[in-house]
Design brief:
Blueprint (H helix, E strand, L loop, with lengths): L1 E6 L6 H12 L2 E4 H10 L3 H10 L7 H13 L6 E5 L5 H13 L6 E6 L2 H15 L2 H4 L1 H15 L1 H7 L4 E5 L4 H15 L1
Parallel strand pairs: 1-3, 1-4, 2-3, 4-5
The structure holds cytidine-5'-monophosphate (C5P) and magnesium ion.
The site of cytidine-5'-monophosphate (C5P) has 16 residues, from helix 2 and helix 3.
Length: 191
């Protein structure tokens, strides 16, 4: 299997780019944020639980997120691999992911981080709010909190995979096409 983690702060373009990567590499796109939003849209117990945290820009408890992710991976036993977007969000989730994949005789192939300046991120998310309908995109206070959580808990996930020589950073600044081409180049060099 080829399992890629598309990494980076909120608003760095993970979802946008993942949609392009799945087309080219025929991998399954798994966005934990999208999965939560689907559950919230249907007012499921999982959605209601997630909403308590997402509405504040906090992380949903690990057991909830890891359980949901595990179910999702199990749904596609024939997949050629996954592009994970928005997961793992902390070291605990990284360790849980490694375990889930090793149980499938697989592993993370590579983490690719999109590097984007902080003010650019805030502007992108506020712009996205005009069409995303996401309440956590429309409020600058919530956006700033999401960025704080990223810095305090998520950024270290890069180091976790770097220790295994599996982390790479590319610029996430510029046009969507430019960033896609950087990703293609990077992924082609791994595969
Ligand atoms: O990944 P995305 O930015 O779409 O996630 C939206 C929100 O979902 C996050 O701000 C966070 O509240 C929650 N989330 C989480 N744990 C994850 C992914 C998303 O708590 N692994
Ligand atoms: Mg996203």
């Amino acid at each position: 299997m080829i399992n890629l983690i598309l990494f980076g702060p909120p608003g760095s373009g993970k979802g946008t780019q993942a949609a392009r990567l799945v087309e080219k590499y025929k991998l399954m796109h798994v966005s934990t944020g999208d999965l939560f939003r689907y559950e919230m849209g249907n007012d499921t117990p999982l959605g209601l639980k997630a909403k308590e945290y997402i509405s504040k820009g906090e992380l949903v408890p690990d057991e909830v997120t890891v359980g949901m992710l595990s179910n999702k991976l199990d749904m596609y036993p024939e997949a050629k691999g996954f592009i994970l977007d928005g997961f793992p969000r902390n070291v605990f989730q990284s360790e849980a992911l490694d375990k889930l994949l090793s149980d499938k005789n697989s592993a993370v192939t590579q983490l690719i981080a999109l590097d984007v300046e902080e003010e650019e991120i805030v502007q992108r998310i506020l712009k996205r709010a005009e069409t995303s309908g996401r309440k956590d995109d429309a409020d600058e206070g919530i956006i700033r909190n999401r960025i704080e959580v990223y810095k305090n808990e998520t950024a270290i996930v890069f180091d976790y995979y770097e220790k295994a020589n599996k982390a790479k950073r590319i610029s996430g600044m510029g046009s969507i096409d430019e960033i896609t081409n950087r990703l293609f180049e990077e992924i082609d060099s791994i595969l």
